[in-house]
Design brief:
Elements: E1 2-6, H1 12-15, E2 16-20, E3 30-40, H2 42-49, E4 60-61, E5 66-73, E6 85-88, E7 100-104, E8 108-110, H3 117-121, H4 126-135, E9 145-148, H5 154-166, E10 169-174, H6 180-185, E11 190-193, H7 198-206, E12 211-216, H8 221-226, E13 230-238, H9 251-256, E14 260-263, H10 266-272, H11 275-290, E15 298-302, H12 307-314, E16 322-325
Parallel strand pairs: 9-10, 9-12, 10-11, 12-13, 13-14, 15-16
Antiparallel strand pairs: 1-2, 1-4, 3-5, 3-7, 3-16, 5-6, 6-8
């Protein structure tokens, strides 16, 4: 069985290796899943570089999320699950950048058998993160304003889709002008480009309203410019550290507007949330993917043998869609 693994930390295209290993049989309470597609996420690249929230022992198997079909079950697992399409919940307890993986039964959530496997493969991390960011901190009524930085990212696209589904208005901030039209076409209410006049443009765009939530994907100056537009008691949630910049929020805004700042990491959410709630949320999001409410652009798919090209492509900040392995 082919698998990708890590023997030393460093640049992904240089240190990830293709290996051949023996297929394992599922133990009691486990399933064997043949992987259809598995996503390359920024968090995977951070883990490979050794700068993620966990640092695995080496050599380490790779890949956090993916989708596939159950091909065998261990004792105690209903044999009717064989043939079922399942999402591999990204707990980092199993690898997905391989032809087949072994999954504990609670980490295998049944999803639509007729859905697009590439879109379903991306369900594990970004859509659930977007859902938690949008609905986990503020009770948003239809018509509420939410701002997000790094709005061209895959997670931000899911935030946009979920906000539209809930009737929530979005102010989206991007780095490049060539990202604006695609977000407007996707239903964004306002799209602005980072710059010195961001605060003024944002204030004009929302008029007499106030932001209730800022979902932050870049940190730095854009958050500092948007924070004064939050209502009293407004919330800021940061979920990525790709640029590793400090979060720039004025202490005066924090004090006099009673703002709250949070960090979000999916792994902690998965650990602290009842597993049935996790599974039910994934099922609801899978249904939104199946009916086209949620989707993310895909730029390329690669076989495991082309992992160097795939990882270099995924690390390119100028790409316009996700990169996946489709073994």
């Amino acid at each position: 069985m082919k698998t990708l693994q890590l023997s030393s930390f460093g640049e992904p295209a240089d240190v990830v290796e293709l290996a051949e290993i023996r297929s394992a049989d599922p133990a009691p309470g486990q399933l064997a899943v043949a992987i259809e597609a598995a996503t390359i996420n920024p968090s995977d690249l951070m883990l490979i570089r050794g700068i993620y929230g966990v640092r695995p022992e080496l050599p380490a198997a790779l890949g956090a999320e993916g989708v596939g079909h159950v091909v065998a079950v261990g004792a105690g697992v209903d044999s009717s699950r064989v043939g079922e399409r399942v999402l591999v919940v990204p707990t980092l307890e199993q690898a997905t950048w391989r032809e087949q993986t072994i999954v504990d039964e609670p980490n295998a959530v049944a999803v639509n058998a007729d859905g697009d496997p590439l879109q379903l493969a991306m369900l594990g991390i970004n859509p659930i993160t977007a859902y938690s960011l949008l609905h986990g901190y503020v009770n948003l009524a239809p018509g509420a304003w939410v701002a997000q930085t790094g709005a061209s990212s895959a997670t931000a696209r899911y935030v946009l889709g979920l906000a539209r589904h809930a009737g929530v208005r979005t102010l989206n901030v991007v780095r490049r002008a060539d990202s604006v039209q695609s977000l407007l076409d996707a239903g964004a209410d306002v799209v602005l480009v980072e710059g010195e006049d961001l605060a003024g443009q944002a204030a004009e765009a929302i008029g007499d309203s106030r932001l209730e939530l800022i979902i932050d994907g870049v940190a730095g100056e854009p958050v500092a410019q948007l924070a004064p537009l939050l209502k009293t008691g407004g919330q800021i949630v940061s979920y990525t550290a790709r640029n590793r910049q400090p979060l720039g929020v004025s202490i005066l805004d924090l004090i006099f507007h009673g703002l709250s700042v949070h960090g979000y990491w999916l792994n902690l959410w998965l650990q602290s949330t009842p597993r049935e709630t996790v599974a039910q949320t994934y099922r609801e999001l899978a249904a939104l993917i199946a009916d086209g409410t949620l989707s993310a652009p895909i730029e390329a798919t690669y076989g495991l043998g082309d992992h160097r090209d795939a990882l270099a492509h995924a690390a390119d900040n100028n790409r316009n869609g996700k990169v996946l392995f489709a073994p």
